[in-house]
Each structure stands twice: as structure tokens, then as C-alpha cells.
Amino acid sequence: MNHAALPIQIDRSSPVPLYFQVAQRLEHMIESGNLPAGTRLDNEIDFADQLGLSRPTMRRAIGYLVERGLVIRKRGLGTQVAHAKVRRQVGLTSLFDDLAKSSRGPHTTVLNFTVEPVSDSLAAELGIEQGTDLYIFERLRHADGEPLALMRNHVPARLLRLSAAELERHGLYELLRAAGINLKIAKQSIRARAATAAEASLLCEARRAPLLEMTRSAYDEQGRTIEHGNHIYRASRYSFDLTLTG
User: Fold this and answer.
1) Which CATH number fits the domain that encloses residue 154?
2) pTM higher than 0.85, yes or no?
3) CA–CA gap between residue 193 and residue 209 (Å, rounded)
4) Spatial distance between the Cα atoms of 71 and 80, rounded to a whole number of angstroms
5) pLDDT (tens digit, 9 = 90+) per residue, 41-98?
6) What is the pLDDT of residues 213-225, one digit of tens each?
7) For residue 20, is it within any domain?
8) Which of 44, 66, 81 represents a domain boundary (last residue)?
9) Domain with 232 in it
């Protein structure tokens, strides 16, 4: 893409650092859609020459965008605008539903699907009888053709019939609603951690890349445990949004 036409104006009299001025202009253009996902940016030398800036200033501006997940550097391809992050309000919703509503093209691959008795430790944590059969399944969820999340779930088998084929076509919460099961409340925790080698490979990330891990136990209006999930998300592609009131 020819950046000579980009409306980037530099105010050299401003106290705002030059690199940050460039980064802010590019960030606005990316978030407004003027620079869509996949757009290649000129190399730092050409970009610096076009704007009359030093190469270190331009490198710092691009580095800022890389850290925010707005652009990515690919060997042999240069710097490209990344796909927009999935921003999700923290609430009792499913990732599949949220992606579908925002037209992010959800696609699911079921990696494992079994029925096993609940472990003693999980039975105690969820308040269900020891020996209860659980569906245990692991799915890889894509958005806009890119891997986004690795999800492991436990669901009591007595609640409904599930299959790997159904879980590839529909979201779990959609299937629960179809079975007449309505979630009322959930306990959830979110933490940051580094990716293992296996997780990094599945999510197309570097080893020890930052991940967001969410653990959730959801219950219906009768207080029954409906599902327990452990989901990990690419921090470069995903964020949780919270509204706080006082």
C-alpha cells in the first residue's frame, strides 16, 4: 500500500512525542477500517523517509502498535495490520454466540470428546455426586479464519445428549437452550499465563506467548451444575471488557 497518500500529519511543535503521534494516527486508521486487516505497511526506512522522521522513531511507533496487537511482523512478509481483537463483555454468554452476533465467522473443531465418571476433586468442587458421568470435550474455536480459543468443558451426561458433530455446528449454550436448560448464574475467574508448547502450536502463537485463561462453573435456576469450563484465549486477539459502577 502506498503510504504517501495516508493523511498522517506530524506536529513538530507538539509536546507529544513524534513516534506516539504516528502510532496514534495509524491506530485510528486501523480501528476505523481505513487500514483493513491484512494491509501491508511499508518498511520502516521507506515510512520514515515519507514522513521525514528518523528510522528509530518509526521503529518505535511500529513497535507500539505491535505491542497493542494492532499490527504483526511476519518474516518475509513485513508488517501487516492484524485482525481486530474480539472484545467481549463479561457476562453469562457463550463465545460462539458473541462471535456470531458480531459477524466474526465462528468455526469449531472438536479435538476430543469422551464420557467419563467425574473425578473426586471436580465432584467436590462442583457439588455433584461422585461417579456422575460427564461429557468431557475439547474444542478449538476460530474467528475470521484464525484460531482464537482452546476450550475444555465438562457437562453432566444426564442433562442432554451431546455429540462431537453437534458441537462443531453449534455453540454449547445454544445446545443447552435447545434442551430447555437455562443458565442463571456462574462463578468465573480470569488470569494471565504463558502458553505451553502444545497450546502455542494449536493457537498459532509463539511458545510462552501471553494467554488469558477463564475458568467458569455455570448453574441453572434450580442450582444444578450445568457446565464447568476452562478456556484459554490468545491475548493478542481477545480481551474482556467490564463495566464498573460505584
Assistant:
1) 3.40.1410.10
2) no
3) 8
4) 5
5) 877 888 888 888 898 998 888 888 887 778 887 776 778 887 665 555 445 566 665 6
6) 989 899 988 888 9
7) yes
8) 81
9) 86-241
- pLDDT tens per residue, range 25-52: 888 888 777 888 778 887 788 888 888 8
Q: How many domains does the chain have?
A: 2
Note whether 55 and 175 are same-domain residues.
no
